[in-house]
Amino acid sequence: MLGTKLKTVISLVAVMSIAGTVSAYASTPSVSPKDLKSKVAVTLIKADQKPATVQDQIDKLYAGLKPGQVIAYYVKDPKLNPSDQISFAGKGFVFQKYNDYVAKAKKVNAPLLAKPATLPKGYTFKAGFLYPQNPDRTSALYKKLDQELKEQAAQGKKTLFTKPLEVVEESSAVLTFVKNKAEMSVVATFVKPSESIGGTPVPGSNPDQKTETLGINGIECTYTTELQGRDHLDWTDSANKVHYSILAKNAKTDVISLAKSMVKK
After folding, report:
1. What distance lies between CA 219 and its chain's CA centroid?
2. Is residue 26 part of a domain?
């Protein structure tokens, strides 16, 4: 995955260098004020101009997206994209009213997250979100985009190749609840069929995680304590093929309390 947005910081040394350049032009008697302004501007532009990185280009594309829009992109660079896969960037919808969220969720084929009738003490509804879900790697849409973008890359000399998605298969849903400075999020995502990777699966381990199995309303759930990031409780509704997560930092009791009002056998 490419890095996060890069930020350019103009140092005091750079400012002093620019000031020195201006002084040099100002001390030259053969340069008119008009020419001086033009030459200084050109000098500053040349000093500041840097080729846009691939991440800069992706960030610019993302900034131009409207809610619900998604682009697929392919980076033709083995160092930046060692897995040689296409990627996606999408912008979601934000709703301050729960009823608005429900109405939109039905239109974009998202798992419908019902607002719990009872919340852990002190929590109130903050916002609802709907995020375009990336096409599954086994889907016809993914394979079509993969082929088209790589065909473009084979004929082009650029590094980044993009294509807007006309159809997003479905969306994931998020509800957030707050209590003072604490925030708890509920995420619902459609379960995708697992892609065969061959060989014997090897259980992964993460030293920054501690997991435990909990039984809630007859359903097996997994609670994960994260040393870095928010803890989360996960379970799957196999009948409806929806995976749920409740995320919060250092609020295990509240998370389990909320889960008890949501988990159904």
Report:
1. 30
2. yes
Q: Residue length, the chain?
A: 265
Say what the pLDDT of residue 156 is. Answer: 87
- Number of structural domains (the chain) is 1
Can you read off the two tokens belonging to residue 183?
Answer: 């925030």
Determine the Cα–Cα distance for residues 175 and 115; give it in Å rounded to an integer.
8
What letter would DSSP give residue 68?
T
Q: Phi and psi of 126, rounded to 5°?
A: -105, -55
pLDDT, position 75: 97
In a domain, 21, yes or no: yes
Burial label for 248, CB within 10 Å (0-12, 13-18, 19+), is buried
Compute the Cα dihedral for 38, 43, 47, 50 and give only its sign.
positive
Q: Is residue 20 part of a domain?
A: yes
Please give the order of strands across the beta sheet that includes 171-179. Answer: 93-95, 124-132, 171-179, 182-190, 242-248, 231-237, 219-226, 209-216
Quote the domain boundaries for residue 33. 15-48
| 120-131 pLDDT tens trace | 999 999 999 999
Q: What angle is formed at CA 164 by the lines to CA 160 and CA 170, rounded to 5 degrees?
A: 125
- For the chain, residues with pLDDT lower than 50 are 1-41, 43-45, 197, 201
Q: Which of 225, 260, 226, 228 is nearest to 244 (CA)?
A: 260
Whether 22 is covered by a domain: the verdict is yes
244, 199 in Cβ contact below 8 A? no
The pTM is what?
0.68
CB atoms closer than 10 angstroms to residue 219: 16
pLDDT at res. 233: 97
pLDDT at 167: 66
* C-alpha span between 60 and 68 (Å, rounded): 17
